[in-house]
Specification:
With 406 residues, the protein is mostly helical. The chain is built from 18 helices and no strands. The longest helix has 33 residues.
C-alpha cells in the first residue's frame, strides 16, 4: 500500500519545473493582453507592437535547436538553472525598458531560454520518475504552461492594463526567481548530462523531407490562429465593443478552453491516431475561425466562439507532438530529441507567421478579417499532412505483406 502512494506522488523536482513552465507560459502570451497599453506608452503603432509576439517566436524557433545541441554535454541541472537565469534577466530588462527597441531586446533574450528549457526540462521530468510514470511527469511540468493560459495571462493582462504594462514583467521575473530557487533546491545534482551525440548526426534531421513536412503541418496548423489571437484585445475592445477589463477577463475563457483542448486532443490522438486526429481538428479549427469571423460583432457569440476556438487551436498540440516523434522515429531515429526541438521551433515559427499575417492585415485596416487568415492556413496544413499519409501507406502495406509471407 505504501509503495503505491510513493509511486503516485510527483517528486518536488518535477513541481519545480512546473513553476518555471508557468513563468515561461505567462511571459510568452502576456503581451497579447497588454498590446494596446504598450503601443500607447511607447508611442508605436499596434501592428509594430505585434512584433513583440512574432519576433519572440522567431527568436525562439531559431535559437532552440542550436541551444539543444550546444548544451547537450552540460549536466542537466546546470543547464536548466542557467536557462532560467537568462529568462529572469530578459524579463527584468523588458520591465525596465523605456524604449520599444530595449523591450524587444529583452523579449528576444527571454525567448532564447524558453524553448530549450522545455526541450531539456521534459527529458529531466521523465528521468525523475519510474519509466511507467514518465508521461505523467511531463504532463505535470506542462501543466504549468496550461495554467499560465488559464490564470497567469488573464490576471497579468488585468493588472497590466490597470496598473501599467511593466508590472506583469516584474511579476514574471519574481516567478522565475521562485522557480530558480525551487530547481536549485529540489533538482538532484546527479542528473545525467545529455547524450552529446555528433552535431552532424542531429542536424541531418534538417535534411529529412518527412521531418520538414511535419514541421510544415505544425507551422500552418498551429500558427494560423495567431493572425487574430495576437490582436485579440483590440479586436474585443475596438470591434466587438467590450471594455479593456472585460477583454482581459475573457482571456480566462480562452485559457480554460486551451486546458480542455489539450486533454481532449491527447485523448483523441491516443484513440484514433495522430494523423486522423489532425485531419479532424484542422477541419474543425478552420470552421471555428469562420465562426469567429462571422461572430466578431456580437458580444455573446464571441464569448462562445472564444471557447470553441481555444479548444481546437490548442487541441492540435498533442497530435502535432505525437506526429513529429513518430515521424522522427521512422526517418531519423538517431535524432529524435533534436527533431523534438525542431517541433518546438515549428510551433513558434507558426506563431511568428500568424502574427506577421495579422499585423499585415491590421496595417491595411483589416483587423476584423484576420480570422480568415487562420482559416486559410488551417486548410493549407492539410496538404503536407496528406503527403505524409501517402508516404506512410506503402510502408504499412510492405509490413502487412511481410507478415502474410510468414
Amino acid at each position: 500500500m505504501s509503495t503505491t502512494v510513493v509511486t503516485t506522488k510527483m517528486p518536488p523536482g518535477v513541481l519545480s519545473l512546473a513553476v518555471g513552465a508557468f513563468a515561461i507560459g505567462v511571459t510568452e502570451f502576456i503581451v497579447v493582453g497588454i498590446l494596446p497599453a504598450i503601443a500607447r506608452d511607447l508611442h508605436i503603432s499596434i501592428e509594430s507592437a505585434g512584433s513583440l509576439v512574432s519576433l519572440y517566436a522567431l527568436a525562439l524557433a531559431i535559437g532552440t535547436p542550436l541551444l539543444v545541441i550546444g548544451l547537450s554535454r552540460l549536466p542537466r541541472k546546470l543547464a536548466l538553472l542557467g536557462l532560467m537565469t537568462v529568462f529572469l534577466a530578459g524579463n527584468l530588462l523588458a520591465a525596465l525598458s523605456h524604449t520599444f527597441e530595449l523591450l524587444l531586446v529583452g523579449r528576444v533574450i527571454t525567448a532564447v531560454a524558453h524553448g530549450t528549457f522545455f526541450a531539456i526540462g521534459a527529458t529531466v521530468a521523465a528521468n525523475l520518475v519510474p519509466k511507467a510514470q514518465a508521461g505523467r511527469a511531463i504532463s505535470v511540468m506542462f501543466a504549468g504552461l496550461t495554467l499560465a493560459m488559464v490564470i497567469g495571462v488573464p490576471l497579468g493582462s488585468f493588472l497590466g492594463n490597470l496598473m501599467g504594462w511593466r508590472l506583469p514583467f516584474f511579476a514574471v521575473a519574481a516567478l522565475a526567481a521562485l522557480g530558480l530557487a525551487a530547481m536549485a533546491r529540489w533538482l538532484p545534482a546527479g542528473l545525467v548530462q545529455g547524450a552529446g551525440g555528433k552535431a552532424a548526426t542531429q542536424l541531418a534531421a534538417l535534411g529529412s523531407g518527412p521531418i520538414l513536412t511535419m514541421m510544415a503541418v505544425t507551422v500552418f496548423g498551429f500558427g494560423g490562429s495567431f493572425a487574430a489571437f495576437t490582436f485579440i484585445t483590440p479586436i474585443l475592445t475596438d470591434i466587438t465593443g467590450f471594455s479593456a477589463t472585460m477583454a482581459s477577463a475573457l482571456l480566462i475563457v480562452f485559457g480554460a478552453a486551451t486546458f480542455v483542448g489539450n486533454l481532449g486532443g491527447g485523448y483523441l490522438t491516443s484513440h484514433i491516431g495522430w494523423q486522423k486526429a489532425l485531419r479532424l481538428m484542422l477541419l474543425l479549427l478552420a470552421a471555428t475561425q469562420v465562426g469567429v469571423a462571422l461572430a466578431i460583432g456580437s458580444q455573446w457569440m464571441m464569448v462562445v466562439m472564444l471557447f470553441v476556438w481555444g479548444v481546437f487551436a490548442f487541441g492540435l498540440s498533442p497530435a502535432l507532438q505525437a506526429g513529429m516523434l513518430a515521424t522522427a522515429e521512422r526517418h531519423t531515429p538517431k535524432a529524435v530529441d533534436f527533431a523534438s526541438g525542431l517541433n518546438i521551433s515549428a510551433f513558434n515559427l507558426g506563431i511568428s507567421l500568424g502574427s506577421m499575417l495579422g499585423a499585415l492585415m491590421v496595417s491595411r485596416q483589416l483587423m476584423a478579417s484576420s480570422p480568415w487568415a487562420g482559416v486559410a492556413t488551417s486548410l493549407l496544413a492539410l496538404l503536407p499532412l496528406a503527403w505524409l499519409a501517402r508516404r506512410r501507406r506503402p510502408a504499412a502495406e510492405e509490413a502487412r505483406a511481410a507478415v502474410c509471407e510468414r
